[in-house]
Amino acid sequence: MEDLNAMLTPGMLVRHPDQPDWGVGQVQSNIGGKVTVNFRDEGKIVIDSFRIGLMPVFDG
């Protein structure tokens, strides 16, 4: 299996491809295929990088 979020680092902004209503989230940590993201409209969520590829946001 491939870690779909291996390039994400703390502080980066991302969106969840299946949950657009969560808004933009900030990566808190990325350890062992688990990415913790604090989403503006949903709160802190742990994402399994082997199942979901987060979309980086470059425009804020």
Task: Provide structural commentary.
This protein has no helices and 5 strands. A hairpin with a 3-residue loop joins strand 3 (34-39) and strand 4 (43-48). The protein has a 5-stranded antiparallel beta sheet, with no helix packed on it. It has 60 residues and is mainly beta. The chain has a domain at 13-52. This is DUF3553 domain-containing protein.
Overall structural class, as computed from helix and strand content, comes to mainly beta
Termini Cα gap: 30 Å
In sequence order, what are the helices and strands, one letter per element?
Answer: EEEEE
Number of strands: 5
The helix fraction, in percent, is under 10%
Strand content: 35-45%
The Rg value, from CA coordinates, equals 10 Å
What is the global morphology? globular
- Quickly count the helices: 0
Provide a quick synopsis of the model.
Pfam families: DUF3553. The chain contains no helices and five strands.
Features:
DUF3553, 0% helix, 60 residues, DUF3553 domain-containing protein, five-stranded antiparallel sheet, mainly beta
Present the secondary structure layout.
Elements: E1 13-15, E2 25-31, E3 34-39, E4 43-48, E5 55-57
Antiparallel strand pairs: 1-2, 1-5, 2-3, 3-4
